[in-house]
Design brief:
Biased composition (Basic and acidic residues): 197-222
Helix content: 40-55%
Structural class: alpha+beta
Strand order of the largest sheet: 1-2-4-3
Protein name: Methyltransferase domain-containing protein
Organism: Calcidiscus leptoporus
Strand content: 5-15%
InterPro entries: SAM-dependent_MTases_sf (IPR029063)
Region (Disordered): 197-223
Number of strands: 4
Length: 259
Amino acid sequence: YNKSMWRDPRVHLTLNTDASDPEQLRRVQLPATLDVIIDDGSHKFLDQQRTLHTLWPRLTLGGFYIVEDVLVGALPWSREHAQQVPTNNTGCGHECFFPQRLDDHPFMFDRFGYSGLASASTRLADATKTLMRAHDWFWVVTGVHKGGGLDCSLILRKTGPPLGSVLQPVTPPSAALEEAQRALEEARAQHAQLRQRQERLASEMRDHSHLEGSHGGTDRQHGCGPCAAQLSNTWMMLIVSAALNVLQLCMRTRPMKVR
């Protein structure tokens, strides 16, 4: 068991919450949307149904909802569960609350309109039937016990594009526009500063030209060389600054391709 996984900011662990109380579930501090939800709570069927309907709206389109354990009969921590999901399991010792057959639990057997032998078992709520008809679902066997019990999980996938195929913009369009406007104002301010510097350097070059009129050509070249270099550097700084601002704007607004 690696506890460091809970330090991942993408993972949210919720403890000390009564799954039978939807209001407590709604008050849990969670992101508005989640890619994967795992119910590893009380393992009681009615609690699992309530949790499913309370948290399902938070699930991202294409996301997965996992009921980690589906159990039957009396649970070691909840004897009344025998009335929620009755079972005739025998010969399984202390493991009789694990399903012995894949049709033992309402979540796993397709009882939608079924009128056979299993029809007397606990039925899914109508809201659960509607949800499962509208979305993909399947169950998996994750383990087998010596007494014959099966570790089973229910996995539901919310209808929608596969996770990761639709990338949300890093910032909303309004924020991107504000950022672009700030970048433009910054570029204008830099341009004004560089223009003032250019005018000052040009004035200094003219002054040097007047002062060197009575000197030789060699002195004139030495006098004007530094000014010309500064002027060239000024224009280079202006070009680089403008290019960087344009590049940053393009990177913020460019749609990312998904392969």
